[in-house]
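Here is one such protein, fold included:

. . .
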Amino acid sequence: MRSLLNTLYLASGYLSGLCIALITLIITSQIVGRLFGFIVPSAEDFSGYALAAATFFGLAYTFREGGHIRVTLVIQNWRPRFRYFQELCVLLFALLLVSFMSFYSVHMVWESYVFEEVSSGYVSVPIWMPQVPVALGVIVLNIAILDDVIAMLRRQSPSYKAHENELHLEEV
């Protein structure tokens, strides 16, 4: 199971990188097109869709790698027991919040599909299509947070903690 979850987080990170490469290709084609006198229809729309996908696909991978900002100035000197409960409470709150986001992201995709919403750019795109990566990214983040909550309840260190310690050692 651990291997499957790590593969899921890594795949999410790769998809994020792929979306960033896609943005680069779209913008480059738009620049080259202007030089040769043609326009790439809805380039800004597709770049925006890819940016949203890159952002949300990257959330779980960044969380697992300790890349999200954590302010540890206060809690770093707490006794281990207090720090454990503080981190568990924060993870439970994050799980609640991201579960809420996951539910409503999926609901947003479903409503866009049911009501047949389309974009208003040169190229009409069903809105549910660019919304799917957003919902998938939030769901994978939800799984990653749940994974760390379970690790904390088993008295194991959460995934971001190991990378946080690595970053701290590099600063010294």
In short: Residues 105 and 135 are 5 Å apart (CA to CA). The chain is about 75% helix and 0% strand. Residues 80-114 form the longest helix (35 residues). The chain has one domain: 2-171.
